[in-house]
Amino acid sequence: MKKSIISMSLVAVLTVSSCSDNVLDLTPENKILSSQFFKNPADAVSATNQIYTNLREWGLAAFAPLALLNIASDDVEKGSAPADASFMNDYEFFKYTSTEGQIGTYWGGQFGGVNLCNQVISNVPQIKMDEALKNRLIAEAKFFRAYHYFNLVRTFGGVPIFNGLRTDGNYNQPRNTVEEVYAFIQKDLLESSAILPQKYSTEETGRATKGAALSLLAKTYLYQKNWAKVKETTETVMTMGYDLFPDYYKMFRIENENSVESILEVQCGGDNNLDVVNYSQYGEVQGVRGMFGWGFGIPSESLINAFEKGDKRKDATILYRGTTTPEGDFIEKEGDNPYYNFKVYVPMALQPNVGSWQGNQNIRLIRFAEILLMNAEANNELGNPATAAISINRLRKRAGLPNTTATSQDAMRTAIKQERRVELAMEWDRFLDLVRTGDAERVLGPKGFKKGKNELYPIPDSEITLSRGILTQNPGY
Q1: Between the N and C ends of the chain, which has fewer C-beta atoms within 10 Å?
Q2: pTM for the predicted model, two decimal places
Q3: Could you tell me if 29 and 125 lie in one domain?
Q4: d(CA 435, CA 418)
Q5: Is position 148 within any domain?
Q6: Domain span including residue 120
């Protein structure tokens, strides 16, 4: 049974009743207060499941990450009809301000996830239940708290750290430093990786694992350029049974979700096509306009031209109008855009019958391919380009390409950047990669990127207002 354990069993979002007039005031009407919940083991499981359910939320799976992480890069353009959601152009050309809605949506989505994690971390320890299960649920919550904070620190810089629910009810806190946020994230990941299992039963497929925690930990080290730790941690993950799925195109299809390459996926869909709550709009907003979705976030000419001749990943990434998919769906010749993101494609025969295109496809968050890429980058930066080539060539072999010709450290550094771009195309990493490698001004400058400003997004103006100035703004906004 696919994804059943992660379906939403908690019918209301748990909230902090003491919060008012602050940045994390998430108390909606007609919701269960935490003081009325967390009474038994079933409540503990339901609250933890809600963390997973929240990953499909609009601010975490649709317009906001598409705008901030994809359209802002050189790989993706706004797409859709010119007049449809024209505000998305602000991200393509770096004209957004601190009042633009998607920035606030992304901030709110991540901190909403932090809140749900803190509910579990603070309340579950008091429940009388099986200790092993209790510890695992808390570890899952710590993992996802780290995940949300990692998304926040990369896009906004230093943000307030909330280590559990505050006993004084005061959530109006100043920003912590970037270094403090990374230390907090890594502590959560080290603690969770020590408890989380390496595998689950089939019924619990999709839950956070030890491999997921170590993979995310490696990625935090990558952003800090702690190459020795990246190498050490990725090498550990490389011994845990993950591997490249043989067929790059088929890896993104529904029948191959949670494959040997999967380290972390957002579980979408379910066994009942009418169970709308299990679906996301990740694929809907990017699908072929007029056929499978709204048509936003189309591949750029720059990305299309980035693929080497013969790279199988190109035809598995770019869906062209006027072509027929391997599953037999003819993509109409006429439309607003010439091509779309093939990775979000769901065959017509598998579309959910809920009036929502492609809502039943999982969202791949961490793949084993990225572990190989991080391992290669770490080895190269530590002066071992020949060792780096081993991981790169595994990816190139699957793509139908010959081994890399790079031998020097500089040449290998360029080769790794190229492999990251085409392997992870449109998977939310390109813009952040350009920033962390220092290439953003060179690549994105012609689109309006300004060094010293656009490496980070502005703190939402509404949050600064709510905080009465406790939260400070990023430079340049």
Answers
A1: N
A2: 0.92
A3: yes
A4: 15
A5: yes
A6: 1-196+441-477
